[in-house]
Amino acid sequence: MIEYIIAGLTNVLNPFTLFLMVAGVLVGILMGSIPGMTATMTVAVLLSFTFTMDPGNGMMLLLGIYGGAVYSGSIPAILIRTPGTPSAAATIFDGYPLSQKGEAGRAIRISTVASFIGGVISVIGLMFFSPLIADAALQFRSPEFFALALFGLTIIASVSGDSLPKGMISGLLGMLVATVGIDPLTGFQRFTFGVPELLTGVQFIAVMIGLFGIAEGMKAYSSGIDDEGKKVDQDIDGILPSLSDLKAIGPVSTASGIAGVLIGSIPGAGGDIAAFITYNEATRWIKDAVPSFGEGNVRGIAAAESGNNASTGGALIPTLTLGIPGDSVSAILIGALMVHDVQPGPALYQEETTLLYTIFVGFLLIYVLILVFGLLGAHYWVRLINIRESLLWPAILVLCVIGAVALRGNLFDAWVMLGAGALGYVLRLRGYPLAPMVLGLILAPIAETNLRRSLSLSGGSFDIFYTSPIALVIILLSVATIAVPAVRSLSSRSSA
Asked: Which domain of life is it from (predicted)?
């Protein structure tokens, strides 16, 4: 193995390869920080540039874009409460409150270090444990995917704020919106109202941009634009996080990184599910957090960012070992390899070992570049908050529209975004949390499709869920996640 690692290191230290990695990371950071410009879209657009390169150089460019975009989605989440990518939605909970306290630079530095830790853990898992993890991920069928989605939906209780009923209503509203379109099993139209654009469903990213970006803009304008009175002085001193912050985020970043690799290795799970699950587990296991989660706790940022960045390497595990894409970006990466007559799968480990270790070593170095550029760039990103609101918000709203339309080149998605923005604004006025709605949008299609498919396979019997050990364990964890806080609440009331 050592000789292959050395060969991979020799390849990535080639000046042209290094240039491609740096370019990929910078492009990924830039595009990922624009709401709606996802990693998938950016990798797909730039895929054609790799056709004339050798496979190693092409993968370095695309992986640089992939890692950079997943990382930088946290930047607008922290600064303007609008995630750049879906996987950064959980970072809003504690990142934006820190920004409101004048500590946006601290939040971005924490996000950068946690992303680096998660990314490094994912590469280690990819390099040393990929065959084992891939075999375990292959055990996931419809019952297991339903159980995983159900477990994800239990997070609604953790992100509902002070009112669980309002959180549940918000989550159910998101699940309702997710049912719009063609029924995945029967082909019937649901809630399309004769609108052809709704046949493919409501575009999730457009809704998310509206809920956070447009709604935040509407809130800013409704309360009055004040270029001076609302400005929060930001502390932008220093490049590295403080020693106390590093001690605080180290354990949670490591644990979330390991969990993110495991979740990311499940085909179709993705970084957004990984981020929400790791954030939720941090809130459950870390007691007496000061400040509380949701009020600017650095460990909340670390859990979400380490989890979603670890999912990148996790998604490559089934991609490289089995030829099965772990997420939408890895599906594009499979196409990039096949253009060069390289077939991902078990044979890759025997026939293209040098290329494989070039990918391993290169992806590790890409996260080092992300760490360097993220820490050095934190000063410049934070200064965006000091731009006059009368100039900043129009620019943000224009970027939101561009991001929504660019998804499919469809103007209808901009109207969806505006409608979601109006809904998000009303919900915020009434004290309804928006995070449960996002969870419902993400997880409801996965839960519904796999529940119905499982029942179809079992002839309508629910035995299929408890005869699967993996599904049974996850379902029991879901029940415990809901039951334990409820029992504690009842006990505290009775003792009072």
From this structure: Archaea
